[in-house]
Backbone:
C-alpha cells in the first residue's frame, strides 16, 4: 500500500515541472475548444493530436492526449448549454436541460453544474480505475489465446448490440471492420490478402488514417450540411458551482458515476451512451421527474457526471485487456502502441509505473479542466461563433496532416478520404460507426488469437468453449445476439413482469 | 414526448427500400470477399494446416456478412420494401441546396488532395485550399462587390495563416513530416 502511494506520489512529482504543466494548459484548452465546437469530436481531437505528439516522450504524449480527451468530453456541454447544439455526441443529453436553464437566464448556473458534475464524475472514474485496473490485470494474466479471441468477438458483438440503433446493422458494420483488418500481409505466410498487386495495400489499412477519416472527414461533411449556429444566450450569470447543488444530488452523482464507469468499460459504447443512461436512471429515481427536459439541475448533473466518469472507465479495458471502451480510447490505445507501450495485461508487468502515471495524468487533466471551467466562458462564446465555412477547411487540412504523419505514406491520405466517405455514407444509412472501428481495432487481435489457439489445440474448437472464462464470454456473446432479435427481449421481460392487480393505476 | 426515449439520429430507422439496397450491396461484397478468400493458397505443400490458411478468417467474415445481409434483406422485404410506396418514418426529401453544399465540400477536398498535394509546398497548397473553400461557401449572389472583395481577402488571409501556422507548428515545433 505504502509502495503504491509512493509510486503515485512519484508519478505526480514527475509531471510537476513547467514544461509539462505548459503542455497540460494548452492541451486542456484545446480539448475544451474541440469539444465545444460542433463538428469536431473528441475522437478527432485525440487522433489529430496523436500526430502532433509523435516526437514527444511517451508519458508527455499520453498526457497531452488525455488532456485533450478529458477536455473535449467536457467542452461539448458548453455549446449544448449556449447553442442548444451538442459539441460532441456525448453532450446531447446535456442539451435537454442545459439549454432550458440558459433560456431561463441561468446559463452560468448550468455551466457551473456541468463543471462540477464533470469534475466529480472524472474523479469517481479515476478512483474506480485505480481500484479495478490492478485486479483486472491480475485476472487477465491467466488468459491465453482462447480467452483473448472471445474478448475480441465479445467486444465487436456487444458494440453492435448496445451502441444504439439497429443491432443487425451494428453486426454488419462490426464484421465489415473485422474484414478490413485482414487486408494486407497475413502473419503466417506473409501472403498479401486483397492487395491486388498494390504494395501500399499489402501494408494494410492504418488504424489512425481510418479513424481520422471516419471521425474527422465524415464530421466535416456532416458539419457543412448543417445550419449556421447562433448564440441565443448573451447574458451569463455566475458560473461558480453551488455547494448545495452538489450536496442535494449526491446520490445522483454517485449513481451516474457508477453507470458512467460501467458503460465506459463496455467496449464501443462510449460517452454518449454513458450520458443518456445516467440521465435516464436519474429521471427514473428522481422526485422531480416533471422538471426533466425543462431545466432540471439533477438531469444536467447526471448527464455530465455519467459522461465524465466514462472517460477513465473506457481506459480501464485499454490498460488491462487492450480492448478500447470507446472511440477516443481506441485512438489513445493506438497512440500507446505507437509510443512503444504494450496495452494489455502485461502492461502492469512491463511498465508498472505507467499505471500510476495514467492516474496522475487523469487527475491533473481533471483539475485543469475545473480551472478552465471557471475562466473559459466569454472567450468560448466568441470561439463558438466561428463560421463553419472557415473552420472546416482548417480541420480538413489537419486531417490530411494527421493521416500522413505517422508513416509518411500518401496512401494513408487516400485511406482517410475513403474512410471519410464510408463514415459519412454509413451514418446517412443509419449505421453506428463504433462497431466498425472496434472491428478494425480488434481484427488483428481476433485473428492472431484464433489461429494461435487452434495451433495450440491442434485444430480442436473444444477449448474455445470449455475453458471457464471462454464459456462465460461465449455465453454472453450468444445472449447479446439473441437479445437483439426483435421480440426476444420483450418476451423475456414479460416473464418477469408482475401481472397488474385489479385497480392498479399507471 | 418522453425525451429519454427520443432516438438519436443514427437510431432512427431507414426506409425498408434503403435497407434492401444496403442488403444487396453487402451481399455482393460479402460473396466477393468470401470467393476471393477461397481462392487464396492453403500451403498444403508446406504442411500448412487449414486453420493457418490465409483465406480462412476473411472467408469466414465474408460468409457472415452474406448471412447478415440476407437477414437484413428478408427483414426489409417483410417491412414492405418491394411495395411501390415503401417509405419509413425517417424518409425525408433530399434538399437540393444541402446536397450541393456537400458535393462542393467533397469536391474541393478531393481537388486539394489529388490536384494540389505534392505539387507545391504544403503550406501553399493548404493556403490555396482554405482560401478557395472559404470563398466558395461565403459567396452569396447579389452581394455588393466591395463586401465580396473583403470576404475574398479575409479568406486569403485565413488560408495563408493556416498554411504558415500548420507548417511552423508541425514541422518546426513538433518535428512532424508534412505531405
Residues:
Amino acid at each position: 500500500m505504502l509502495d503504491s502511494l509512493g509510486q503515485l506520489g512519484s508519478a505526480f512529482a514527475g509531471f510537476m515541472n513547467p514544461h509539462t504543466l505548459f503542455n497540460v494548459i494548452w492541451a486542456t484548452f484545446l480539448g475544451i475548444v474541440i469539444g465545444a465546437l460542433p463538428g469536431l469530436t473528441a475522437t478527432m481531437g485525440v487522433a489529430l493530436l496523436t500526430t502532433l505528439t509523435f516526437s514527444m516522450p511517451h508519458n508527455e504524449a499520453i498526457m497531452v492526449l488525455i488532456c485533450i480527451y478529458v477536455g473535449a468530453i467536457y467542452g461539448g456541454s458548453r455549446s449544448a448549454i449556449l447553442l442548444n447544439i451538442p459539441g460532441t455526441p456525448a453532450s446531447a443529453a446535456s442539451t435537454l436541460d442545459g439549454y432550458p436553464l440558459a433560456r431561463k437566464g441561468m446559463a452560468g448556473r448550468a455551466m457551473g453544474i456541468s463543471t462540477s458534475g464533470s469534475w466529480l464524475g472524472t474523479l469517481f472514474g479515476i478512483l474506480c480505475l485505480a481500484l479495478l485496473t490492478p485486479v483486472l490485470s491480475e485476472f487477465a494474466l491467466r488468459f491465453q489465446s482462447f480467452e483473448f479471441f472471445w474478448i475480441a468477438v465479445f467486444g465487436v458483438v456487444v458494440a453492435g448490440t448496445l451502441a444504439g440503433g439497429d443491432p443487425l446493422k451494428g453486426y454488419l458494420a462490426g464484421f465489415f471492420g473485422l474484414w478490413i483488418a485482414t487486408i494486407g500481409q497475413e502473419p503466417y505466410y506473409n501472403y498479401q490478402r486483397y492487395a491486388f498487386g498494390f504494395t501500399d495495400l499489402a501494408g494494410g489499412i492504418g488504424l489512425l488514417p481510418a479513424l481520422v477519416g471516419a471521425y474527422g472527414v465524415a464530421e466535416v461533411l456532416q458539419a457543412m450540411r448543417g445550419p449556421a449556429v447562433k448564440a441565443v444566450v448573451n447574458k451569463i450569470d455566475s458560473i461558480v458551482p453551488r455547494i448545495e447543488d452538489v450536496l442535494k444530488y449526491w446520490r445522483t452523482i454517485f449513481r451516474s458515476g457508477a453507470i458512467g464507469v460501467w458503460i465506459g468499460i463496455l467496449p464501443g459504447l462510449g460517452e454518449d451512451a454513458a450520458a443518456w443512461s445516467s440521465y435516464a436512471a436519474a429521471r427514473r429515481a428522481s422526485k422531480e421527474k416533471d422538471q426533466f427536459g425543462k431545466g432540471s439541475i439533477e438531469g444536467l448533473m447526471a448527464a455530465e457526471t455519467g459522461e465524465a466518469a466514462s472517460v477513465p472507465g473506457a481506459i480501464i479495458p485499454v490498460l488491462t485487456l487492450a480492448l478500447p471502451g470507446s472511440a477516443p480510447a481506441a485512438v489513445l490505445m493506438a497512440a500507446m502502441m505507437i509510443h512503444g507501450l504494450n496495452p494489455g495485461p502485461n502492461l502492469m508487468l512491463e511498465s508498472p509505473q505507467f499505471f500510476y502515471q495514467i492516474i496522475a495524468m487523469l487527475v491533473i487533466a481533471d483539475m485543469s479542466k475545473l480551472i478552465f471551467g471557471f475562466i473559459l466562458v466569454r472567450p468560448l462564446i466568441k470561439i463558438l461563433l466561428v463560421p463553419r465555412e472557415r473552420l472546416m477547411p482548417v480541420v480538413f487540412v489537419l486531417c490530411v496532416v494527421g493521416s500522413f504523419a505517422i508513416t509518411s505514406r500518401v496512401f494513408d491520405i487516400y485511406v482517410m478520404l475513403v474512410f471519410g466517405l464510408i463514415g459519412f455514407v454509413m451514418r446517412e444509412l443509419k449505421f453506428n460507426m463504433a462497431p466498425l472501428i472496434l472491428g478494425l481495432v480488434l481484427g488483428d487481435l481476433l485473428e492472431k488469437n484464433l489461429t494461435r489457439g487452434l495451433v495450440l489445440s491442434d485444430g480442436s474448437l473444444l477449448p474455445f468453449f470449455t475453458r471457464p472464462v471462454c464459456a462465460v464470454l461465449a455465453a454472453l456473446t450468444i445472449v447479446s445476439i439473441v437479445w437483439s432479435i426483435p421480440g426476444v427481449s420483450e418476451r423475456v421481460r414479460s416473464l418477469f413482469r408482475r401481472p397488474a392487480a385489479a385497480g392498479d393505476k399507471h | 414526448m418522453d425525451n429519454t426515449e427520443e432516438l438519436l439520429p443514427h437510431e432512427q430507422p431507414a426506409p425498408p427500400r434503403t435497407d434492401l439496397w444496403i442488403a444487396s450491396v453487402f451481399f455482393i461484397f460479402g460473396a466477393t470477399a468470401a470467393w476471393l478468400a477461397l481462392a487464396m493458397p492453403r500451403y498444403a505443400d508446406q504442411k500448412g494446416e487449414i486453420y493457418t490458411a490465409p483465406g480462412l478468417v476473411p472467408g469466414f467474415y465474408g460468409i457472415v456478412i452474406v448471412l447478415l445481409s440476407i437477414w437484413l434483406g428478408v427483414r426489409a422485404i417483410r417491412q414492405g420494401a418491394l411495395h411501390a410506396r415503401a417509405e419509413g418514418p425517417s424518409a425525408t426529401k433530399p434538399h437540393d441546396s444541402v446536397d450541393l453544399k456537400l458535393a462542393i465540400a467533397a469536391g474541393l477536398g478531393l481537388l486539394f488532395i489529388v490536384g494540389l498535394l505534392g505539387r507545391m509546398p504544403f503550406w501553399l497548397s493548404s493556403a490555396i485550399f482554405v482560401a478557395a473553400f472559404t470563398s466558395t461557401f461565403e459567396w452569396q449572389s447579389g452581394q455588393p462587390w466591395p463586401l465580396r472583395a473583403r470576404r475574398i481577402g479575409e479568406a486569403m488571409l485565413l488560408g495563408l495563416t493556416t498554411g504558415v501556422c500548420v507548417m511552423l507548428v508541425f514541422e518546426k515545433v513538433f518535428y512532424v513530416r508534412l505531405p
